[in-house]
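Morning. Coffee machine broken again, so started the prediction first thing and wrote up yesterday's gels while waiting. Chain of 390 residues, entered below exactly as on the submission form.
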Amino acid sequence: MTEEQTTYWLPRATLERLIRMLVEDGYEVVGPTIDQSAIVYGPIESVADLPVGWTDRQAPGEYRLEPRDDDRIFGFVVGPHSWKKYLFPADELVASAARAGDTWQFTTPDVVPRNYAFLGVRACELAAIAVQDRVFLGGPYVDPLYRARRDAVLLIAVNCTQAAATCFCTSMNTGPRCTRGFDLALTELDEGFTVECGSDRGRDILRRLTADKVPAMADRDQLRAAESARAQAVAQITRRMDTDDLRQLLLGNLESPRWDSIAERCLSCTNCTMVCPTCFCSTVTEVEELTQVDRRRQWDSCFNIDFSRVNGNPSRNSIAGRYRQWLTHKLATWHDQFGTSGCVGCGRCITWCPPGIDLTEEVAELRTSARLRDSADHVSKAEDSAGAIQ
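Came back before lunch.
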């Protein structure tokens, strides 16, 4: 079927009905909202809770909200929150041990996930959720807490119609258009939304939203306008990452002086890993009371010096070593573990890094240094060969 045969049209006012219908269905709708001068994810009860008429300006180490000159609802990019906070919470109970007479009784928590409806999921974020699915669901050991939450989530995606200066999803083949992994995908125009269905659940919601009538198909003008809006986001993406032989580049330059240069700027503050939608490092702690011990899993970061502590000593006791671990795992050895990159090109780690360290620039510098070194080695060998002939 052609796009014209599978893309529907919803007037702008329909979004309010969609939110109300989802709430009536028992979903807790979560979407973008403004809090503390940033667009974050939180509970949504009506369109009024969304950042109508606001956009964001991002650069390395910089984030600012600015008013738009229109009433677009999704006319912004991504903020400091990711959907990870709902699927893989920052702090959760994983097991308990309670005193029962002279013995201890061990239990694991019953998983009763909330029925979340995520509203406004971008293409890079769909890719990030797919990456975490590989981490928590794709191997021989499945995380039951993650699986229960993931199965209960409804994903309503929104195609990007603008990009930030820190976006590079086109380099990672993750956006800016949503192509899979959603129940519904919207493209916002002035008068309403073009809508694509990605699941039977999405199609059922769309039918019910139009009072069981056949949803109106998007006409050719609406399709062209939606395509133009999405193309605008592609044209705005100027940041690039060359991913050719990236694993070999990083693992072949573990002793590069560039790591020390990065360490002079890096604060080891963990911001990049906290805002990253795919990072999954965690630590387990025992919370003790007189008759009970709770085992809790909490977000951690490879930038924390104690994260690599083994036998009383950290194995990565320098900032250079910790940044190298993060970047090489994210872009290289993640492929070995999960068959995919750990980066989706959302640019959060660039925006929310206090000194504005840009991983795309660091990869480019490593590539340039490697080329210069290889060129120097080639010249040296040529000179040695010439000397031997003489």
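Residues 3-88+112-236 form one domain. Going to sketch it on the whiteboard this afternoon.
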